[in-house]
């Protein structure tokens, strides 16, 4: 039998061995956790850079891929890569480097399709806007309208109303398209009458023009003789005593011209000096995108546009870029990304410049990535790189009276729906 001291010694030895064993286990567990964290971190980094574990020709390989991030409005659209259903938006797809055809479809909407070049360790973005195949048509006015003019901000419409059955309502109206009150019924409480024929001049027959800041309207009243009368109206209220500015018209027009020049100069300062210098020699600017990120322009001469941003931004889809300029052709220039794309053929190929109705057919859509094109008695929408031309409306409407709603949810047109017995009124084409 062991003595008490020997038993105590043995017990202490067992406890010490047990403690050492626990420490080893703890160190092993800690080490394994650290190893798993390290592997996981490396894996996340490699995944973010586009590395994927794939089986090719029966052998496992770690391959560098790129990522195509597809988002759509509306969401839940099907994504086809080279004709194969691959995912549903909004989603990301890992692809080996190369060129792919991407198609996005959703029931009730027109298909969207574009080619992409996927590069290793880069993320390409496909921001897709789908438009309904059968958009809704809704009247937003109840009285006959003579003409419509949109303000410089694209948020307000001014128009003339002339109706024999509602003479008290004849005059000039303004509708704020950012107002929450919808539908807007012209001639009713949700629109603002700013001038009435009852005040004297026939404002229902006036030619309307907006001030550069959209706060005032100049109404030109035709006269029986050679001299017309001009009235300055505030655009937010009824002008009970319209201001006759005929004697000082030139001063007013000069002031507005100066305001427009100052605004143009401020916009041009957005451009980098080298881009500004090149644009001054080679661009005829037709319009700035609503968010001022792009320029719609006509090439004033043929030539080659240099690259102003080096290195180029990662993830840009360069398949649609065109830096070769053809005189009179229409282009879109992305200022931040230094990407130039061709939108349309030269104007003399689109229509006969000698004809009075040969006008620029493009208007920026509120998202700054699309253009509305009015041509051949139809309304199309096109991406600013010339891709995905979609016909929104092919029914009757009065040419050039086409205005996008500020939030991009609809388009306003002037039409009598083909009934020549009634005057045209305002309708919206729903795009959601």
In short:
This protein has 432 residues and is α+β, with helices and mostly antiparallel strands. The protein has helices at residues 4-48, 249-268, 273-282, 347-350; strands at 51-56, 59-64, 66-73, 78-81, 84-88, 91-95, 98-105, 112-118, 123-129, 137-139, 145-150, 156-161, 171-176, 192-196, 207-210, 216-221, 229-234, 243-244, 283-288, 294-299, 303-304, 324-325, 330-334, 339-344, 362-364, 370-375, 378-383, 390-393, 402-404, 410-415, 425-430.
List keywords for this structure.
4 helices, single chain, 31 strands, 4-stranded antiparallel β-sheet, 432 residues, Immunoglobulin-like, alpha+beta
Plain-language structure description:
By secondary structure, the chain is of the alpha+beta class. Among the domains are: 4-48; 59-129, Sandwich (Immunoglobulin-like); 270-394, no CATH class. It is 18% helix and 37% strand. It has 4 helices and 31 strands. The protein has helices at 4-48, 249-268, 273-282, 347-350, and strands spanning 51-56, 59-64, 66-73, 78-81, 84-88, 91-95, 98-105, 112-118, 123-129, 137-139, 145-150, 156-161, 171-176, 192-196, 207-210, 216-221, 229-234, 243-244, 283-288, 294-299, 303-304, 324-325, 330-334, 339-344, 362-364, 370-375, 378-383, 390-393, 402-404, 410-415, 425-430. The strands form 9 sheets. It has a 4-stranded antiparallel sheet with strand order 5-4-7-8, with no helix packed on it. It has a 4-stranded antiparallel sheet with strand order 10-31-30-29, with no helix packed on it. Strand 1 (51-56) and strand 2 form a beta hairpin. It starts with a helix and ends with a strand.
């Amino acid at each position: 039998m062991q003595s008490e001291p020997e038993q105590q010694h043995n017990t202490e030895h067992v406890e010490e061995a047990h403690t050492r064993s626990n420490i080893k286990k703890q160190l092993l567990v800690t080490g394994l956790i650290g190893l798993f964290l390290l592997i996981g971190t490396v894996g996340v980094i490699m995944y973010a850079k586009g590395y994927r574990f794939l089986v090719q020709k029966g052998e496992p390989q770690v391959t560098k891929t790129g990522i195509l991030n597809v988002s759509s409005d509306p969401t839940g659209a099907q994504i086809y890569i080279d004709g194969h259903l691959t995912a549903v938006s909004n989603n990301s797809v890992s692809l080996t480097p190369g060129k792919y055809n991407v198609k996005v479809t959703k029931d009730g909407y027109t298909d969207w399709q574009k080619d992409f070049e996927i590069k290793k360790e880069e993320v390409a973005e496909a921001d897709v806007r789908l438009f309904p195949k059968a958009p809704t048509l809704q009247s937003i006015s109840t009285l006959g309208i003579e003409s419509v003019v949109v303000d410089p901000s694209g948020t307000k419409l001014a128009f003339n109303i002339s109706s024999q059955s509602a003479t008290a309502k004849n005059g000039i109206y303004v509708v704020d398209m950012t107002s929450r009150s919808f539908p807007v019924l012209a001639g009713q409480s949700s629109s603002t009458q700013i001038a009435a024929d009852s005040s004297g001049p026939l404002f229902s027959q006036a030619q309307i023009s907006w001030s550069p800041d959209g706060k005032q309207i100049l109404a030109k009243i035709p006269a029986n003789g050679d001299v017309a009368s001009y009235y300055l109206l505030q655009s937010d209220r009824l002008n009970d005593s319209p201001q006759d500015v005929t004697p000082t018209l030139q001063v007013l027009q000069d002031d507005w011209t100066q305001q427009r020049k100052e605004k143009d100069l401020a916009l041009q300062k957005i451009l980098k000096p080298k881009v500004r210098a090149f644009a001054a020699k080679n661009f005829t600017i037709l319009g700035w995108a609503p968010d001022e990120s792009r320029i719609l322009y006509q090439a004033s001469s043929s030539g080659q546009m240099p690259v102003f941003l080096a290195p180029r931004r990662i993830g840009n889809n360069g398949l649609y870029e065109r830096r070769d300029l053809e005189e009179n052709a229409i282009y879109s220039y992305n200022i931040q990304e230094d990407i130039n794309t061709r939108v349309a053929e030269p104007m003399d190929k689109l229509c006969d410049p000698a004809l009075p109705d040969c006008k620029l057919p493009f208007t920026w859509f509120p998202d700054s990535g699309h253009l509305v094109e009015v041509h051949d008695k139809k309304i199309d929408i096109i991406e600013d790189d010339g891709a995905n031309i979609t016909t929104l409306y092919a029914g009757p409407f009065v040419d050039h009276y086409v205005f996008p709603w500020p939030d991009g949810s609809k388009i306003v047109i002037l039409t009598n729906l083909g009934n020549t017995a009634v005057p045209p009124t305002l309708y919206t084409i729903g795009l959601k």
